[in-house]
Design goal:
Rossmann fold, single chain, about 240 residues, alpha/beta, six-stranded parallel beta sheet, 7 helices
């Protein structure tokens, strides 16, 4: 059986328990060797006004991953000049880890915009796709008919069977992850209001934010609606909020 490497992209601005818990859920259920968390570089769909500097987001992501080897931070997008696109990131990672099958972790809240991503039809030529979802219907909610049909053509019957088929094609599987109601935008708002973010992320990330005075001088909009457990994952580029 081929080794599998998980890929989770996001702004990680800042990273929180929802990001790492979702990554660990997928790792355990699919038997992944580890999961790479990839902070975004330049994002085609998001402005940079609210983003901490890339070096800070990378450092916080490393702290959130810990040192047990199950999760690792990867700087591939931060090191790239220009806009980062998921299809290009996955292509480069497939070269770097040619002995592994990549599994791209995608939050269900990104499905409505998937058809806008550069080269989205090529994603399943490069990696498996795991749609991280919450309790409720397991279909591709909000996807365009073209995207939903594309996903169903590649769907595997069960998570443990996520493997390339006899023609070498990668597969798609929806997977329920722990629904932690945490969002980076809410955390930034709390920090701007002088409120605590303890127990929403690791103590090491909290200490880093305090040490560097992050998110204090920019007042974000108050959080609205429900938050998503895994953030906004990957694209444009790759992404979690």
């Amino acid at each position: 059986m081929s080794r599998k490497l998980g890929i989770l992209g996001g702004a990680f601005n800042p990273p929180h328990h929802g990001h790492v818990r979702a990554a660990l859920d997928v790792k355990e259920i699919l038997g992944l060797e580890r999961v790479l968390l990839i902070p975004s570089g330049r994002h085609p769909f998001k402005g940079e006004r609210m983003l901490a500097a890339p070096r800070h987001r990378l450092a916080m992501t490393k702290l959130a991953c810990g040192d047990d080897g199950e999760l690792d931070a990867c700087a591939i997008e931060i090191e790239r000049t220009g806009t980062a696109y998921t299809v290009e990131t996955l292509t480069e990672l497939s070269r770097r880890y040619s002995d592994c099958e990549l599994v791209f972790l995608l939050g269900r809240d990104l499905l409505p915009e998937l058809h806008l991503w550069k080269g989205w039809q090529c994603l399943l030529d490069i990696a498996h796709l795991c749609l991280m979802t919450r309790p409720g219907p397991m279909h591709a909610a909000g996807a365009t008919p073209e995207v939903e049909a594309w996903l169903q053509r590649h769907r595997r019957s069960a998570a443990p069977t996520l493997s390339r088929d006899e023609d070498g094609r990668f597969g798609f599987v929806p997977l329920l992850v722990t629904p932690l109601e945490i969002s980076s935008s809410d955390m930034r708002w709390r920090i701007s209001q002088g409120r605590s973010i303890r127990f929403l992320t690791t103590d090491a990330v909290v200490a880093y934010i305090d040490q560097h005075g992050l998110y204090r001088n920019v007042v974000p909009d108050p959080p609205q609606g429900q938050v998503h457990p895994g953030g906004h994952l990957f694209q444009r580029s790759c992404h979690a909020d």
